[in-house]
Amino acid sequence: MANQQKLQIFLIFHIYFHCLIIAQPDLLFSDCGLNGNYTQNSAYQSNLNTLLSSLSSNMDEYGFYNTSIGRNTDIVSAIVLCRGDVELQECRNCVNNTVHKLVRSCPEQKEAFGGYDDCMLQYTSRSIIGTSSNDPLLYMWDSGNASKPEEFNRELQKLVDRLRGEAANGDPLRKYATGSATDPNDQTIYALVQCTPDLSPQDCSDCLTNAYGAMATCPCNGNRCSRQIGPRCNFRYQSYRFFKQVAVQSHSPPPGRSAFAVKEDKSARIVIIIVVSTVATIILMLSTFVILMKMRKRKLMHKIQKFLQFDLSTIRAATDNFSSSNKLGEGGFGPVYKGVLSNGLEVAVKRLSVDSGQGDLEFKNEVLLVARLQHRNLVRLQGFCFDGTERLLVYEFVPNASLDQFLYDPDKRKQLNWEKRSKIIGGVAKGILYLHEDSRLRIIHRDLKASNVLLDAEMNPKISDFGMARLFTLDETQGSTTRIVGTYGYMAPEYAMHGQFSVKSDVFSFGVLVLEIISGQKNTCFRNGESVEDLLSNAWMNWREETTTNLIDPMLRGSSGMARDIMRCIHIALLCVQENISDRPTMAAVVLMLSSLSLNLPLPSGPAYYTHNDITSGISLTQEYNSRSSGPRELAKSKSISSSHNEASITELSPR
């Protein structure tokens, strides 16, 4: 039984990171530590699984991340660092492989350290954040000693000392330096040194000094090729060039606190001068930062315009002057046409209506966002056109149109067996996870719905329509607005009612979408026999009464061997639409839950649902908000319907 549980743990990470075990080479180095073992199904193991599953997606662009979760005896800390010349995607692949191999190499052990040429990873049951401990320090060397070891070591030390200063005092976001020197035999020595960027310059220098000093007791002393590897710093030297050249970037480190320290014997005048000078400096720095960010955004827009902008005449020719025969559908902001460019490439052209509600800001927002997004489950932007009143977005052509055209059509829905629906659910989850965690900026879509999920020739989902998306920096968790945009039925209540949005708003929309995919019906007009009910209300009622199979599309009820998967997806969807924001899982947790049947799911609490009588295709947000203000009884009596085109609502509100 224990072996089976170990295999299940490994399979979780195998599925989550999309790696084949046979493609993963053995670890170059590893150490399992002496910090004891954890027990199966313990809180420590759960924390470890959660932490390891998110390491690669949380790393910064320089390949570094450290974090800690849990409390007391269940705390798990981890630190990852990629070599300074490794590209981010290669870095993530390396970390994913290390996670797989290290868990297998050190089963049930609370501490492990290992990696490859490109990256290293340490996890442990002790806190490592804020410390500079470089244990364990591992050695590796090749055969072949220097012919003049003393002179060789002297030249090597000069090289390492120089690089140590460059790494410690250079780029604060990537404490990394490479260089070369000539040994006594006129042969080149190539060396690399690196520290984790959270170390201070002094700690980095001390760490490298200690690592190099430890060579005196190493059998590698006097060897022509060697490396010392620790979780906080490392260095390596070879007789051949083993690193790539990295452009040196200049980053101004944050000002030190010592400028604010004032001795008690200083006069009040000096204190005032220091404080005023400091405040003025900060204001100047902030103003400069804002100006630079605006300039950077303008430069980015200019680059995008240069490489992606189409002439209006080109688009007219591709779409046969927007012929009705080429019209693919009508979106919330205008029609979409199929086009064929002069090079034969098929495209989908989104033509924004003059009165669509999407202004220049939303248009530029969508261009800036989508142009920088690269993921198999996001629609790819081919270009755009901005000419007078014409605003056009040119996307890759997706032959099977949108999910709603299959899901809500009695005939086309037959093509969506459970295997395809499951693939769509999983693909959408991975696309939203990319927006939330794997992009440099956290992106909230804010309008996730069936009509914004396109299907390619193999029925793979591609999320589209980023006109309503909002950008967060990675340390932001939520925002608010007085302009409520999106589609009724998919909006989280805290957003629809109060203008508060976060990644959990998209999680709510995803939960609604999953219930629609499983039931084959719209959230706002779910039919239960002769009556029309709210989908979330119906799902929750069936869950409580243990009659959840009533929610499943009749076309799926005969799916052999799929009942467990379908019921699990309903369970996950109900977790996503819970009223309490903090109870909803993150998309990282959702992807993990979808990937593994072995993970135990918590019980959901009540969903954020609205029970209506006589619900049709949509209710205006203004009416919904006013009804809420009158109380649930008045809401139940309300029958005044205000449908929005294509279920899209853009309503100006003043949330409480």
From TrEMBL:
The chain crosses the membrane at residues 270-293. The keyword Transmembrane helix applies. Residues 26-128, 134-242 form the Gnk2-homologous domain. It is found in: Membrane. Residues 1-23 form the signal peptide. Keywords: ATP-binding, Glycoprotein, Kinase, Membrane, Nucleotide-binding, Receptor, Repeat, Serine/threonine-protein kinase, Signal, Transferase, Transmembrane, Transmembrane helix. Gene3D superfamilies: Gnk2 domain, C-X8-C-X2-C motif (3.30.430.20), Phosphorylase Kinase, domain 1 (3.30.200.20), Transferase(Phosphotransferase) domain 1 (1.10.510.10). Coiled coil: none annotated. SMART domains: S_TKc. Residues 624-656 are annotated as: Disordered. Residues 639-656 have a biased composition (Polar residues). Residues 322-597 form the Protein kinase domain. Pfam families: PK_Tyr_Ser-Thr (PF07714), Stress-antifung (PF01657). InterPro entries: GNK2 (IPR002902), GNK2_sf (IPR038408), Kinase-like_dom_sf (IPR011009), Prot_kinase_dom (IPR000719), Ser-Thr/Tyr_kinase_cat_dom (IPR001245), Ser/Thr_kinase_AS (IPR008271). The keyword Transmembrane helix applies. It comes from the Eukaryota. It is a single-pass membrane protein. Its main location: membrane. PANTHER family: CYSTEINE-RICH RECEPTOR-LIKE PROTEIN KINASE 10 ISOFORM X1 (PTHR27002:SF980), RECEPTOR-LIKE SERINE/THREONINE-PROTEIN KINASE SD1-8 (PTHR27002). This is Receptor-like protein kinase At4g00960 isoform X1.
